[in-house]
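ok, trying the design again with the full structure, not the truncated one.
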């Protein structure tokens, strides 16, 4: 299952930046409804997700069941992705995900079984957390590239 998930992440890394780059600035920055995120903010959310999951993937290898959580709406607001440069966001997302891919490709199988706590006190192993990360990424990618 991990091999397939690594493949899925590799595919996103190789295709998503050009797909986002093709979006018009208007499509990328327009909010479809009051209180919703623009596609630019969705990409920012994916950057936050990568950053927070990076912490989980590292800390769970050497700490006993670390708890790492974040308020996704506050992170998007505080990072002010809506006013960020499109290319900067693409490059940042790409660098984070290339790093996560390398990290998971090199992680020994016994470390993939280590656990991490989520805010609801649910305990998940790193393997399942990685699969969930890519599932979450694909969910939001569908929002980014649909017309």
């Amino acid at each position: 299952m991990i091999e397939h998930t690594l493949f899925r992440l590799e595919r996103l890394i190789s295709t998503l930046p050009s797909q986002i780059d093709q979006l018009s600035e208007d499509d990328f920055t327009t909010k479809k409804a009051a209180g919703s995120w623009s596609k630019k903010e969705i990409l920012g959310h994916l950057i936050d997700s990568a950053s927070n999951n990076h912490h989980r993937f590292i800390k769970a290898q050497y700490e006993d069941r670390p708890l790492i959580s974040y308020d996704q709406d506050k992170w998007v607001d505080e990072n002010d992705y809506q006013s960020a440069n499109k290319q900067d966001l693409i490059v940042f997302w790409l660098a984070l995900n290339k790093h996560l891919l390398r990290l998971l490709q090199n992680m020994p199988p016994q470390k993939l079984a280590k656990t991490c706590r989520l805010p609801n006190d649910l305990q998940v192993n790193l393997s399942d957390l990685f699969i969930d990360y890519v599932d979450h990424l694909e969910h939001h990618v569908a929002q980014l590239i649909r017309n």
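Keeping the full-length input from now on. The chain has a mean pLDDT of 95.
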